[in-house]
Write a structure and sequence with these properties.
By secondary structure, the protein is mostly helical. Helices cover 74% and strands 0% of the residues. Helix 2 packs across helix 4 (53-73), helix 4 (53-73) crosses helix 8 (114-130) and helix 6 (88-96) crosses helix 8 (114-130). The longest helix is centred in the middle third of the chain and has 21 residues, at 53-73. The radius of gyration is 16 Å and the shape is globular.
């Protein structure tokens, strides 16, 4: 285990504190509970139009976690310490990873959400090493949640 500095602990606490900001908290709650990854960029645009509350929430969550991932990717915070309390980052990437290639191509931005992708990849490897099978169990759990929500809404 590496030496964690007081600055890194303060940074982690600050990152956590920002997550508690009321509008970001609302956006995070919407993202985890209501955002369903569309099958295409066109479906995303139709389902979450620019200027809508849902689109704003989506952008808040993905940009927040992409920014935080950039901090982690640059080694500004101890990775083990960060990963122990930042599993939400992985879920955010899990929900957008299927659309990332289309966004990157459409906007001609090959690095769009690249910080999030890279950090989520390392987090997944870290979690699998600590708890083999946990990643697949989490994917199954979230798939079941989506299916249950769809059945209860009559979709």
């Amino acid at each position: 285990m590496s030496e964690v500095t007081h600055q890194q602990v303060e940074l982690l606490l600050h990152i956590y504190d920002l997550r508690r900001e009321p509008r970001l908290r609302q956006a995070r709650s919407w993202y985890v509970g209501n955002f369903s990854p569309p099958a295409s960029l066109e479906e995303f645009t139709a389902k979450y139009p620019m200027g809508s509350e849902d689109q704003t929430s989506f952008r808040m969550v993905t940009s927040y976690w992409d920014m935080v991932a950039g901090i982690a990717n640059r080694g500004l915070i101890d990775e083990e310490l960060f990963f122990e309390s930042s599993g939400e980052l992985w879920l955010v990437w899990e929900k957008v990873k299927g659309l990332a290639p289309a966004w990157r191509a459409a906007f001609k931005m090959p690095h769009l959400l690249a910080n999030l992708e890279e950090c989520a990849r390392r987090y997944e490897a870290w979690r699998e090493k600590r708890a083999p099978g946990a990643n697949e169990a989490m994917r199954q759990f979230f798939a079941q949640m989506v299916q249950t929500r769809a059945q209860s809404s009559g979709a």
